[in-house]
Specification:
Elements: H1 3-9, E1 10-13, E2 23-26, H2 34-45, H3 50-57, E3 66-68, H4 83-86, E4 92-96, H5 101-110, E5 116-121, H6 130-136, E6 142-147, H7 155-163, E7 174-177, E8 194-198, E9 219-223, H8 227-235, E10 243-247, H9 253-266, E11 272-276, H10 282-291, E12 297-301, H11 315-325, E13 332-337, H12 343-352, E14 359-365, H13 377-388, E15 392-399, H14 400-406
Parallel strand pairs: 3-4, 4-5, 5-6, 6-7, 7-8, 8-9, 9-10, 10-11, 11-12, 12-13, 13-14, 14-15
Antiparallel strand pairs: 1-2
Helix pairs in contact: 1-2, 5-6, 8-9, 9-10, 10-11, 11-12, 12-13
């Protein structure tokens, strides 16, 4: 790697402290700031020695806690004088499984204090030496397996990689996966309390989740995971779930009812919920509000864009149930919809919210249209009126697809 290339992928944040509580960041931060990138290139242009740059940050007087290693980074940082002491308190490591032996073997020698590991898995050319790093780590608490794109990963490598985690099965508390699973390793994490799954663009992800039991689970975030699988998973928890966030999981009325029932029967401590609610199951939502008395934040996705009878939502009934049955703790609402509620429905909802905690409200228009014709100035003016009365604490309106397009 040339010095100039290094300047484009390395950003060091030491906060001016000998004991660094931030991170040695590789490959992430500069992409977010052209200004920082220019600064770094100027700095590197003035430095004639690659090792000289690393020595500024890797030495026996510095303690790094976070390390990000980019794709194709090939410098053996473990051979730098003072590296062992510098990384002796490392807590977080992110690297690509395609890195060479020199990097991965070296990291395995000096990074045994790592508690959280993030691996970006390539489609091919993956290095099995990464499993040595996993095995030499004293105690892992968090694992992230991130796919490099949406294509299929190297299944044979992924199987070996996942199975290498078995020695940390009892200590792992946090697991995130955005790739195609190759084994049922998640079922081994008996003490897991946070699970994040993203199956966008993937198929056959249910194999590793069938009959999964995670009794101590507290946080569940799922995207594009079949809703029946998630309902089964929630049923196999033991009442500790405090946050459930389910995205991009289309489901019929029966499956929608089943997961709502699973939530209010098994999640008495729930504080945050994001879920699609169908019109036929508004009554089940009431049961959820009654049974989940710790709920403080509710994000309702409303699939009312197709204009079929089963998709149309009775906003008046939904708002009535929310005002009548919400626990005292509930104050934060987000509504994502295609067809906005009528002005009269919104007004009645806000009128009925008087004498309760001030509401934090966010509306998300799920539409490809350039303008929010459904949610117009009259809606905005009404909101401002109730903000002035103190019924609404703060309010935001966004177009979902504008955000999506701008972020890509």
């Amino acid at each position: 790697m040339t010095v100039k290339a290094l300047g484009q992928c390395l950003f060091f944040s030491l906060c001016g402290m000998p004991r660094c509580e931030q991170l040695l960041t590789i490959a992430k931060q500069l992409s977010r700031s052209a200004h920082n990138c220019q600064q770094c290139e100027q700095f590197v242009a003035q430095s004639h020695d690659f090792v000289e740059i690393l020595n500024l940050f890797i030495n026996e007087n510095t303690r790094l806690t976070h390390l990000y290693v980019p794709y194709q980074f090939d410098h053996q940082i473990h051979l730098i004088s003072g590296a062992k002491l510098c990384f002796s308190e490392l807590e977080f490591l992110s690297c690509c499984t395609c890195n060479g032996d020199g990097v991965l073997i070296g990291l395995a020698e000096i990074c045994n204090s790592v508690k959280e590991l993030e691996l970006v898995i390539g489609n091919d050319n993956n290095n099995h030496e990464i499993t040595k790093l996993i095995k030499t780590t004293k105690r892992l608490f968090g694992i992230r397996f991130l796919a490099n794109g949406n294509s299929m990963n190297d299944e044979s490598f992924c199987k070996i990689l996942e199975e290498s985690l078995i020695i940390h099965a009892n200590s792992i508390r946090y697991f995130k996966m955005t790739k195609q699973p190759a084994t049922k390793i998640i079922s081994s994490f008996v003490n897991l309390n946070r699970l994040e799954l993203n199956a966008i663009g993937l198929k056959n992800v249910t194999t590793c989740l069938d009959n999964l039991s995670l009794p101590f689970l507290q946080i569940l975030k799922a995207r594009c995971i079949p809703i029946n699988v998630l309902a089964s998973l929630i049923k196999n928890t033991s009442g500790y779930l405090i946050e459930i966030k389910i995205d991009y999981a289309s489901h019929d009325e029966i499956n929608n009812r089943n997961i709502i029932q699973a939530i209010y029967k098994k999640c008495p401590k729930l504080k945050y919920l994001k879920l699609l609610i169908r019109n036929s199951n508004i009554l089940e939502l009431e049961n959820l509000l009654i049974n989940c008395q710790c709920l403080s934040r509710l994000y309702i996705i409303i699939n009312n864009g197709n204009y079929f009878e089963s998709d149309l939502l009775n906003w008046d009934y939904l708002f009535e149930i929310i005002t009548k049955s919400s626990p005292i703790s509930l104050f934060d609402f987000k509504f994502c919809f295609y067809k906005a509620p009528k002005l009269e429905s919104l007004k009645l909802f806000l009128d009925n919210w008087k004498n309760r905690h001030s509401m934090s409200l966010k509306t998300i228009h799920d539409s490809f249209l350039d303008s929010d014709m459904d949610w117009n100035n009259e809606h905005q003016n009404l909101i401002e009126k109730y903000k002035a009365q103190g019924i609404i604490r703060n309010y935001t309106h966004v177009n979902f697809w504008k955000i999506f397009i701008n972020s890509n």
